[in-house]
Amino acid sequence: MSSGVDVDESNVFYLPQQPLPTVHVPASYAEHRDKHTPLCIDNGSTNLRFGFCTSESPRVGLNMIAKYKERKTNRPLLLFGEGIDVEGGARSQARTPWEGDVLLNFDALENALDYAFIQLGIDTPTVDHPILMTERLASPLHSRALTSELMFEQYSVPSLAFCVDSVMSFYHNNLPSPPVPFRSDGLIVSFNTASTSVVPILDGKGIMSHAKRIPWGASQATDYLQKLIQLKYPTFPNRVTTTQTNWMLQNFCEFATDYTALLRQLKDPLQMRAADRIIQFPYTLPVTEEKTEEELARIAERKKEQGRKLQELAAKSRMEKLLQKENDLAHLLSVRERRDEETKREWADTLKEEGFSNDAALDAMIKKLEADLKKARKKEADGENEEPEEPPSFPLVDVPDEDLDEDGLKEKRKQKLMKAGYEARERAKREKEREREEREAEEKREEQERDRDLTGWASRLRREQEAIMSRIKERNRRKAALTDRKSAASQARMKSIANLAADDRVPKKRRKAGGEDMFGADDADWAIYRKINTAAASSDEEDDYANLQAVEQKLLAYDPTFTEEHTHAALTSQRSALMAAFRPQYEEGDVKGKTRIHLNVERWRVCEAWFSPSMAGVDSAGLGEVLQNVLARFSDQDKGRLVKNVFLTGAPSQLPNLIPRLHATLRPILPPEMPLAIARAADPTRDAWRGMADFAKTDEFARVGVTKAEYEEWGGERIKRWWGGNWNSSVSI
Questions:
Q1: Residue 642: which H helix or E strand, with range?
Q2: Model confidence at 1, in pLDDT bands (50, 70, 90)?
Q3: What is the Cα–Cα distance from 576 to 569, expressed in whole angstroms?
Q4: Which of 128, 280, 348, 507 has the smallest C-beta neighbourhood within 10 Å, fewest atoms?
Q5: Distance (Å, rounded) from C-alpha 240 to C-alpha 611?
Q6: Nearest to 116 by CA among 52, 33, 32, 46
Q7: pTM of the prediction?
């Protein structure tokens, strides 16, 4: 049963419109021509940020390319970033340089770098600028080697240095006043697209040997939220895209200081509704065509005529089947009468010719046909408006057999059968008429009782309804108990099955001698199958439902206080208040309501996966465990220096309540007297590039880069070890 939903419209949010792509004009190269200005490239898995170190802020674009052939001119196009959304077919061909957290697609990287250098106005055959470029923590050597090869062989850069983006963001936010050297301490927690990393910093140097990373980031959180929505709304009419889910993650999800306590709080339906955020998807109202009364009357008449024709066809089909069964029964009875006249061998050949293996099969078929005919005649007698028929005559029934030839005997047997069928139909009609009279008398008595005392009559029927519903509820409870193999009901069922298996059957010798197993002769014997077969509906259950429906129809017709909400169907379909708050059910035909997504528990559950990845199916330690593991490697003195400056960076670090959650996670694992301070980057998305630009302006930058000569000597995997870069395959400066 569908129910209306009271919605606070201030809690309804609409999906944002897709903005038109911005046309970026390439910058002038005159300011940097022949000046060897360092170039900073933050090669993120979501966004590519690039620019000269003298710029105040970088140029930003989605790190995605698509090769597309224009339809009108058949000219190949290379689209980058948000320009991909302009062409409908280009989105399916989009590629990124990154596969999860690993840089793999170097064709896409080359195209992205081409776009970056064009936007910066570089029009020379080579890129004559030192490059400072980010790489992921503990970057695979294969990715680094191919990136170095691309930079030195394709663009002929004079030098290339790699850094870790989170360390450069920390550098920018803790930058000392010159000429004081960078000596800050801190614990970096970097929230990235495909991973989250923890990097300790002591004396201004990243301790990469103690850094840790977990395979959970913004993209996994987005996928997790999308799966939760698909599970909650399996028949949602609109397609929920990754872009839309990411928007929901950024705008509605948040961390819980105590997730378990929050779940206990949300067990209250009122709290669940208060936490609800409703996202309205686009919808189209159906166009309803209003018809005039004449058109409605014509449609009703046409339907009535079609129904009458169908009834005639069904009656004709039933009559044909009935005649066929009567003929089959007459034929089988004539066959059975020949049993005493033929020899054993001849009788066996006759049975085989008729398609029966033995006498029992023949008797069973005759019994089945007789039962079918009896049932069909009873249904035929149900028609109360049928015209009275003249009784048929059976002239040969009373004629002696010796006065008839062979054809006459066959016709006599047929007439005897038809007479028996006619008499059975007449008895069924009389029985039906008697039942109808009794029913009318009962209805008349009930009507008199209702007129005399409506309240008492309604109370009696309500008690009857409650008694029937109690029986149905108890029956359902027993069925549910049978699903638990340790319950008393389930054990009693197994005992019945065991008793059936161990029951003494007719011995083989007795069967040969003609002994029979009499199981089933008594109708009570079949109750054992209802007892052990939980799926089969018993006749009692069917009768209860039929009686319940009749009682409720009477109450609905005559008791003004009894409404549809009091019926058994309404009561059993009503969900709990908590489930109704978790996922409200809109009325059938409510197009606007059916295109809404209610986010409540999911708002905190998705973010909790950073601290418990196992709840999303990822076999990894949570962020709290990783922080404890990293801090355990340091002495109390160094640990105190680290936790005085816990630094958060990366776009997901902007999710609400992250700092209180981290404080609640770290405070119990630290000594009570140890100070704890947690801060977020001023601009978590761009401070990494700004830190790179700050560092590229220093004299130290020239010493950390690998030159073209060193690349040719060492190969692409080698880098110089410095405080802001990775340590794997590095050489000391």
A1: helix 636-643
A2: very low
A3: 15
A4: 507
A5: 26
A6: 52
A7: 0.68
